[in-house]
């Protein structure tokens, strides 16, 4: 049942984003920033954690989950180190995910030999 909930939640998020891309003139970069900011705001309001507990990876993997991770890091850094912690907390919390994305993206580029579009 966990897989079904994750699939439904992640699919719903992706469907809403696709509708946003199709029905507005927003460019993909702005939509991605909107998702990260929305995840941070929902985390701040305390609404994202219950949703993430219910949906599992369906809520944790999309960019909404990344925004929530940033918020949790900022909150933890602010509580432990004050104002300076607010600046470094998001980087500390998301460092592993960002590093993994860079490393696996690089390894994927070695395996699949990407070409520049011309």
Features of this protein?
118 residues; 85% helix; mainly alpha
Structure explained in plain terms:
With 118 residues, the chain is mainly α. The protein has one domain (2-112). It contains six helices and no strands. It has helices spanning 2-23, 28-44, 48-55, 57-60, 63-81, 83-112. The chain is globular.
Give a brief rundown of this model.
The protein has 118 residues and is mainly α. Helices cover 85% and strands 0% of the residues. The chain has one domain.
Globally, the shape reads globular
Low-pLDDT stretches are none
> Count of DSSP helices?
6
N to C succession of SSEs: HHHHHH
First and last CA, distance: 45 Å
Mean of the pLDDT scores? 90
Oligomeric category: single chain
The number of distinct structural domains comes to 1
Task: Decide which structural class fits the backbone.
Answer: mainly alpha
Radius of gyration: 16 Å
What topology does this entry show?
Elements: H1 2-23, H2 28-44, H3 48-55, H4 57-60, H5 63-81, H6 83-112
């Amino acid at each position: 049942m966990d897989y079904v909930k994750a699939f439904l939640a992640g699919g719903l998020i992706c469907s809403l984003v696709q509708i946003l891309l199709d029905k507005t003139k927003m460019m993909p970069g702005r939509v991605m920033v909107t998702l990260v900011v929305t995840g941070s705001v929902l985390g701040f309001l305390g609404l994202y954690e219950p949703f993430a507990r219910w949906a599992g990876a369906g809520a944790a993997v999309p960019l909404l989950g990344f925004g929530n991770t940033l918020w949790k890091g900022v909150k933890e850094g602010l509580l432990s180190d004050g104002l300076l912690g607010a600046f470094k907390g998001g980087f500390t919390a998301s460092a592993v995910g960002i590093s993994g994305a860079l490393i696996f993206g690089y390894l994927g580029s070695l395996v699949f030999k990407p070409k520049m579009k011309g």
